[in-house]
Amino acid sequence: MKSKQTVVMASYGMGKFLAEFLTGAYGAIVFYFYENEVGLAAGFAAVATILYSLWNAVNDPIMGFFTNKNAPFSKRFGRRTPWIVIGLLFCAVVFVLIFAVPESWDGRLQPLGVFIWMLLTICLFDAFYSMWEVNYQSLYPDKFRTLEERHRTAAISTVIGVFGVASGFIVPPLFFTYGDRSSYLRCAVILGAITIVGTLLMLPGIKENRKMIERFQKKREMEQALGAAENGFFTMMKKALRHRDFMAFVLLLFFYQSGCICMTGSVNYVVDNILGMSSSATTPIFAGMLVGTLVSIVIWTRLAKRLKNNQKMLMITCVWMAAAAFPMTFVRTQLGYIVFMTLWGIGFGGFWTFMSPAMADVMDAIVVEDGRRDDGVVMGVRAFFMRLCYASQAIVFWATHRFTGFAEDPGSPLAQVGISLHMATIPALFFLFGVLVFAKMNTLTPEKTSQNRERLLALDI
Question: pTM for the whole thing?
Fold first, then answer.
């Protein structure tokens, strides 16, 4: 029985793999591709990304609200599983379209056309990404209800997810070459195929059992009896934003993700413009991060058993990431980047280990306070803050490149200083600021989270 449960948890963990695989690949190569290969000015790419983030503000919560109430074949498959599968399959297709900008288009000669292509495809990609990821995250606190299940699932998912992170960074450079624009499209096709295979492997883990399906059907019947007004989108949105601990968590996620995306998106710039090496040279750097992350899981899990405080563990790991990131401001060798990315990976793995259990603690508090489970909108707001980081990355890259003359001479000493800033210094500041905000706002203690779990058992929500 336990081995069967482990298989289910591992299958669920494939969602972590796909989320980080797609996020990592997107963050690492999309901005670089449009700026360096297609020739679109950094300002245009930044505006497209900012507009994409504004689209996020609408798309994520509404997608969460809509899918929370409706699902095709929900009586047979549940309310989450169909959306996860549909969203992922379309994600794979649209990811390819991002890199399918016509070969004859040059960002320097046809900036408007390239800009529109980038904006439309990344917004479409985000719509389907939200569809599956919001429902995937909502499934976790509902499917895994005990503290032991959550920690075990999180640990297994973290190990699997780490390979998603590594794959998102390591796999793409194996299939594209700096200066060969068409190679990025071939790479995207391969990444899309990997996504489809991963979706099939995830099916056992996201399958909703009969009790979960019956709970949803009961909820729908109660909502119909009470009337739709009580469950309106804006009412639910306001409720989500009023929860102090939830806002503390999503703000921390925003600063954490902003730092991570800036760092990982900078590696291609580092390898190309500071080290002067080929794209394959990114592999050892990201491999160092992978090693650090895998080693960290055992360390942080043991420490967690002693502290029994998921919220505090998030702060500890974030401070670690800041301390490991900042020294890379001054690194100028591949070995140096490998060493510090390995150290940074230790903190990254820790944050990953506690992110889902900490979010589940927050969700428990919301459900207990509201007396109902409206995960969709809450997870939609969470998804918005997490992907708002792409706007952060775009603004940081645009500003540093603008003021360091990157467009005029990408390899100049000043341009290299700018790359080091968005590789190390700025991410470190993101991590530290996130910890300060979280420490000020978060009120969840181990005692509170334990009481919430007991009340949930009594309420059977």
Answer: 0.75
